[in-house]
Amino acid sequence: xxxxxxxxxxxxxxxxxxxxxxxxxxxxxxxxxxxxxxxxxxxxxxxxxxxxxxxxxxxxxxxxxxxxxxxxxxxxxxxxxxxxxxxxxxxxxxxxxxxxxxxxxxxxxxxxxxxxxxxxxxxxxxxxxxxxxxxxxxxxxxxxxxxxxxxxxxxxxxxxxxxxxxxxxxxxxxxxxxxxxxxxxxxxxxxxxxxxxxxxxxxxxxxxxxxxxxxxxxxxxxxx
Length: 224
Ligand code: SAH
What we know:
Layout: E1 2-7, H1 14-17, H2 20-27, E2 32-37, E3 50-52, E4 60-62, H3 64-75, E5 82-92, H4 95-101, E6 106-110, H5 119-124, E7 128-131, H6 141-152, E8 185-186, E9 189-190, H7 200-218, H8 220-223
Parallel strand pairs: 1-2, 1-6, 5-6, 5-7
Antiparallel strand pairs: 3-4, 8-9
Bound molecules: S-adenosyl-L-homocysteine (SAH).
S-adenosyl-L-homocysteine binds near residues 111, 113, 139 and 143.
């Protein structure tokens, strides 16, 4: 898979993509993540990528031309499955959406800033708009990092068996059961006996029971 991220702050991706699971996925060649600085695509001599909103009002708006030039440049190299704009009013990012995007080949993710982006970019250049939740971030970069992480970890070969995504919350329509590790007792707080019993069938029944209970308590809408 290849992910191209269009941003005015490419350095914000240094941490999320250079550590842990995503770092290994990149090293293994499973995913190629390229960031593109939007300022490299502006024809403005001061490298401006934003301007005042028509009709006034507070906040700058990202201009269409640099975004269009950057997307054109990328599209001349390969076909893209989706050109995604990170937006608070976009489709909410959920596990089924991550699953389906993890099966694509090439994605562009566009990060907005300031008051947002010129509406014509949304109308004519992007194919999908995704939100990571009903709150407003100062820019699309953190959302793009969340989106990329949630997709990449699902690509076969990225996670090993132990961390397999299939047993994670939401994959089976339930949240995960609780997990414990050593010591068996800490401050008089004990690990449930069943987990130490060695009876695999009973343990699996318990895990399912706990997952259902938790889902009812924490995500009742998922049970409906
Ligand atoms: N004025 C806009 C918010 C702009 S926030 C509004 O009220 O809808 C600046 C940028 O941050 C946006 O262009 C978008 O790319 C990003 N952003 C903010 N909140 C986000 C969210 N919940 N999910 C994804 N991206 C978000």
